[in-house]
Amino acid sequence: MVHPHSLLLVTVNAAGFLIETIYLLLFLIYSNRKQRIKVQLIMLAELVFLTVLSLLALTIAHTTKVRSDIVGPIAIVGNIMMYAAPLSVMKLVITTKSVEFMPFFLSLFSLLNGVSWTVYALISFDPYIVIPNGLGSLLGAAQLILYATFYKSTKRQLAERKATNEMGQSVGPTKGP
Question: Most buried among 32, 39, 90, 177, using CB within 10 Å?
Answer without folding.
Answer: 90
